[in-house]
Design brief:
201 residues; alpha+beta; two-stranded antiparallel ribbon; 7 helices; 43% helix
Length: 201
């Protein structure tokens, strides 16, 4: 019973921290520290730091990044969004499974994708995944520590970068979450201290 109380207390502490983080993001109380960021170089050490965590779950992790994918954004926020997506993929991918993180450059958008071979989701679930406290297979998520806040944080971070998140998947066939952030295309505007103008997709 004491172990159960301790586990629930730790879970509650994590939940409070996650809610506070989301609230600060939504209120814009913490200003973005924007700079020119090479997304591939930013995400590579993050993926490496998660490798042991992924392997301990009985999964494999792959990383593929195109060169010179440059955005104008907050390094810590982009790292947090990607870390949340990796943690979410691990939570819903039973062993043996595979998680693939990729960075690609489009015409006007950078794409950070986290694909898994997990339990997947239905079209109806895909419409709900970014709602606060919503969790697929809630009983299993509770057992593995899911709080139902991580994807809401991802969406808020991406919104603040003038981007969007897309989720694709099918039940028992895995899922893919892709973050789209506008590419940085005009160095002269940054030197003037202005936000760069982005193309539309």
């Amino acid at each position: 019973r004491l172990n159960t109380i301790d586990a629930e207390g730790q879970r509650l502490s994590r939940l409070v921290d996650a809610i506070l983080k989301l609230s600060r993001l939504e209120s814009r109380s913490t200003p973005m520290n924007e700079e020119v960021v090479d997304v591939g170089d930013l995400i590579r050490p993050l993926v490496m730091s998660h490798e042991a965590f992924v392997n301990d779950a009985g999964l494999t992790l792959e990383y593929d990044a195109e060169p010179d994918v440059i955005v104008y954004g907050d390094r810590d926020m982009l790292r947090q969004a990607t870390a949340n997506l990796i943690s979410n993929a691990v939570r819903y991918t039973p062993a043996p499974g595979k998680i693939t993180v990729s960075v690609k450059r489009g015409d006007v958008m950078a794409a950070i994708a986290v694909r898994d071979t997990g339990i997947g989701l239905t079209p109806e679930e895909a419409k709900m995944v970014f709602q606060r406290f919503w969790r697929a297979d809630s009983g299993r998520a509770r057992a593995t520590g899911g709080l139902g806040v991580g994807l809401s944080v991802v969406k808020e971070i991406v919104d603040q970068h003038n981007g969007w998140v897309r989720v694709e998947g099918r039940p028992n066939e895995g899922a893919c979450f892709t973050v789209y952030v506008p590419l940085y295309t005009n160095e002269s505007e940054k030197k003037k201290g202005n936000r760069p103008r982005f193309g539309t997709n």
